[in-house]
């Protein structure tokens, strides 16, 4: 008799009132010191504004940078009120490394991570700000914000240029403007300025997300620096190449006998989609697959069709099983949308993205796969258009998206980093494992982390994608043969097969964040670097995820959190368990609304999770049990990011395991509080409830009745029902 994961953990939870507070802030600068520096910086800025040509200034305004001291990264120190007081528009922010003039603490690094905020204003506005700060009596809250400012400076053209294709006389550029879709004065001014340089702005393909507008621009080579002088221009780069597989991947025909599963109608109440290169019309997998071709895709190419077919086959059947000379049966049907066309110039990534965007906006798919994207590494200071657009479409949690991290992991330094849009916080970024056996590691080509903060743990996990020593053997519908290949293009749909399979074989309403949490909870990292494998090697089948051993109970909690309220989540340790040690593992996941113009403060939602191990351990005067550390970033990345006071709470996924003596645990709980922010600071609008998912493992070491005891002692919990299609391993 198999034990299956336990549902309805949320029935155990309850609301609690917990008082919170913190001590006074230690400031590195006195108000007088900070005021004198700010006045000096503003005076210099005003002189620079006077020398700037009018045509480079949209609506008579310029964008400048306010850089805060590294000690002020928390949302409560974001200088929104300062900007509002003087009528300055906050248009975005990014992270920068700063060596401040002074620190307020004895122990500190030489450099710290700081918030660089872009603001837009006219000369008159900044002059009024200077005069008021220099001469007026200011409220205490304004003085405190001024003390957080390290420096104010111009935003130079050279900072905005990321990567230029030196081989072309006519540059195809991606330009990012500090402009919303309604900012017509900025749009008009930029068009006029770019045209004066001999450029062409393609507004038809432009995309606006949050406070940013992304658009393609054609420009004669050598004028990129002049274009970057436009004040509201944030980033400028050559349009990157598209990646769909490993450029130099081995492709070998495997001469082995095989059988495909017989077609059987599959019952599931959700839809799955793959965005790729399409299918050939005489395809034998067509009973399981529906193809959709957008109106602007009028031709195909054998290479694109081969890739699309193989990605579909990977999702349906997984890799070839050499022991049984066969492929596994599909868990679901799948749609494929042909988003790649040989007629796309260079290729035009804006066209490909638009086709994906058009489908995702319809919200008809619960599971999707992207084994493609721009071929360039992610950067900490800016979010790419693919990431911005797709992350915004996924932020409501309706869709679970697996995304290949890219195949440049064997390049030097930062060039090996994960590629857009796998840096999304609302996706499941998948890298490649070198093999399916016990001697697994990251495949050398698989791109590495970290991601951005928030979103530091990337890839989310790795799964077999092939290597030189162990090729990924996939069914090729185009040739009706087995092809040996490798690439994250195959790892990604393989992971989607497992994720959607969990949903297909369980008779239980699983949210997408719960499926993500289940995948991460069952990942195994062993001694591998987190930058290489993320949370670890992912399970190869849904059956691995849904089964529990006799000495463990895996409980699924799915619920909602109201902003600023505490939710108490009991950890149901079985009473009477005959053991010395209790092993606990917890994985929290949620989807977050995002602000692409604020990469450092990218997510609008955050969780503060407090662990209370023993209800009897209460300090004098306290209302609740003492807290213990359970989740921490300390062992994730030993970088400046760990110095952030509140970095951990803004991660959309956290997972950790600990071992405790049973005697130290008495009615243990997690207390969870949902924090909201907007554009880096406190949220000003209505804070909608946040859907969360928690996967909790309780293992009583040596107690073989743990699973049954948890169910018997908690009557509202129920084992998840599993379809009879499940293949017991």
Keywords:
729 residues, alpha+beta, Alpha-Beta Plaits, Rossmann fold, 3 domains, 7-stranded parallel β-sheet, 5-stranded antiparallel β-sheet, 15 helices, Peptidase_S8/S53_dom_sf, S8 family peptidase, Y4bN_pept_dom, Peptidase_S8/S53_dom
What's the pLDDT, averaged over the residues?
91
Largest sheet descriptor: 7 strands, parallel
Give unreliable regions as ranges. Answer: 638-643
| Strand order in the largest sheet | 16-17-15-18-20-21-22
| Shape type | flat
Helix content: 10-25%
Strand proportion, as a percent range, falls in 25-35%
| Helix/strand class | alpha+beta
The Rg value, from CA coordinates, equals 27 Å
Number of domains: 3
Task: Tell me the distance between the termini.
Answer: 12 Å
Count of discrete alpha- or pi-helical segments spanning 4 or more residues? 15
Query: Count the strands?
Result: 36
Q: How would you describe what is shown here?
A:
This protein has 729 residues and is α+β, with helices and mostly antiparallel strands. The protein has three domains: 1-161 and 549-729, no CATH class; 164-239, Alpha-Beta Plaits (2-Layer Sandwich), CATH 3.30.70; 269-545, Rossmann fold, CATH 3.40.50.200. Helix content is 21%, strand content 27%. The chain has 15 helices and 36 strands. The strands form ten sheets. A seven-stranded parallel sheet has the order 16-17-15-18-20-21-22. Strand 10 and strand 11 form a beta hairpin. Helix 8 runs parallel beside helix 11 (488-505) and helix 9 runs parallel beside helix 10. The longest helix has 20 residues, at 31-50. It is flat and about 80 Å long. The two termini are 12 Å apart.
């Amino acid at each position: 008799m198999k034990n299956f994961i336990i549902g309805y953990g949320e029935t155990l939870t309850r609301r609690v009132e917990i008082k919170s507070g913190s001590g006074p802030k230690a400031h590195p600068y006195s108000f007088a010191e900070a005021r004198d520096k700010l006045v000096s910086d503003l005076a210099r800025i005003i002189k620079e504004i006077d020398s700037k040509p009018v045509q480079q200034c949209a609506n008579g305004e310029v964008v400048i940078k306010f850089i805060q001291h590294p000690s002020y990264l928390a949302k409560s120190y974001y200088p929104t009120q300062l900007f509002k007081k003087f009528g300055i528009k906050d248009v975005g922010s990014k992270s920068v490394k700063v060596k401040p003039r002074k620190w307020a603490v004895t122990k500190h690094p030489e450099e710290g991570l700081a918030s660089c905020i872009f603001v837009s204003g006219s000369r008159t506005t900044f002059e009024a700000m200077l005069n008021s700060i220099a001469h007026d009596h200011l409220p205490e809250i304004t003085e405190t914000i001024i003390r957080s400012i390290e420096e104010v400076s111009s935003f130079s053209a050279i900072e905005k240029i990321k990567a230029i294709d030196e081989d072309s006389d006519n540059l195809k550029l991606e330009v990012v403007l500090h402009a919303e879709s309604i900012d017509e004065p900025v749009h008009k001014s930029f068009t006029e300025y770019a045209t004066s340089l001999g450029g062409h702005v393609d507004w038809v393909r432009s995309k606006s997300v949050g406070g940013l507008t992304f658009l393609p621009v054609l420009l004669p080579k050598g004028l990129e620096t002049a274009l970057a002088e436009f004040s509201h221009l944030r980033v400028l780069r050559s349009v990157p190449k598209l990646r769909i597989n490993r450029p130099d991947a081995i492709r070998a025909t495997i001469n082995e006998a095989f059988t495909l599963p017989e077609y059987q109608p599959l019952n599931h109440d959700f839809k799955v989609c793959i965005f790729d290169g399409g299918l050939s019309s005489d395809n034998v997998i067509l009973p399981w697959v529906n193809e959709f071709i957008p109106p602007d895709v009028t031709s195909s190419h054998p290479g694109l069709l081969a890739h699309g077919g193989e990605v579909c086959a990977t999702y349906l059947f997984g890799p070839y099983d050499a022991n049984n000379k066969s492929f596994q049966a599909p868990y679901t049907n799948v749609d494929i949308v042909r988003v790649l066309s040989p007629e796309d110039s260079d290729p035009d990534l804006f066209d490909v993205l638009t086709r994906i965007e058009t489908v995702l906006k319809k919200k008809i798919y619960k599971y999707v796969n992207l084994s493609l994207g721009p071929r360039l590494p992610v950067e900490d200071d800016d979010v790419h258009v693919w990431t911005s657009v797709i992350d915004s479409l996924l932020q409501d949690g309706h869709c679970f998206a697996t995304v290949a991290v890219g195949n440049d992991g064997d390049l030097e330094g930062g060039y090996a980093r994960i590629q857009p849009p796998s840096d999304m916080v609302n996706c499941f970024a998948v890298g490649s494992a070198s093999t399916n056996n016990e001697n697994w590691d990251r495949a050398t080509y698989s791109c590495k982390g970290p991601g951005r903060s928030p979103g530091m743990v990337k890839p989310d996990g790795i799964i077999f994608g092939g290597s030189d020593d162990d090729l990924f053997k996939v069914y090729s519908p185009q040739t009706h043969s087995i092809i040996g290949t490798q690439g994250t293009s195959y790892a990604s749909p393989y992971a989607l097969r497992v994720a959607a399979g969990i949903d297909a074989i369980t008779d239980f309403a699983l949210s997408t964040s719960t499926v993500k949490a289940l995948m991460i909870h069952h990942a195994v990292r062993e001694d591998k670097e987190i930058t290489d494998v993320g949370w670890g090697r992912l399970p190869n089948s849904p059956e691995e995820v849904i089964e529990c051993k006799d000495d463990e109970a895996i409980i699924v909690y799915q619920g909602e959190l109201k902003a600023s309220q505490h939710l108490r989540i009991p950890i149901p340790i079985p009473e009477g368990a005959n053991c010395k040690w209790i092993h606990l593992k917890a994985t929290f996941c949620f989807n977050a609304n995002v602000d692409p113009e604020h990469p450092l403060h990218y997510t609008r939602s955050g969780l503060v999770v407090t662990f209370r191990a023993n209800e009897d351990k209460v300090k004098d005067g306290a209302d609740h049990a003492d807290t213990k550390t359970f989740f921490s970033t300390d062992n994730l990345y030993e970088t400046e990011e760990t110095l952030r006071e509140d970095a951990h709470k803004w991660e959309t996924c956290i997972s950790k395991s600990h071992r405790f003596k049973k005697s130290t645990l008495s009615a243990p709980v997690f207390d969870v509080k949902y924090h909201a922010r907007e554009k880096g600071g406190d949220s000003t609008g209505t804070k909608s409830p946040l859907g969360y998912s928690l996967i909790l493992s309780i293992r009583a070491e040596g107690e073989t009745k743990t699973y049954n005891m948890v169910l018997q002692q908690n009557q509202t919990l129920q084992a998840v029902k599993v379809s009879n299609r499940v293949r017991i391993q």
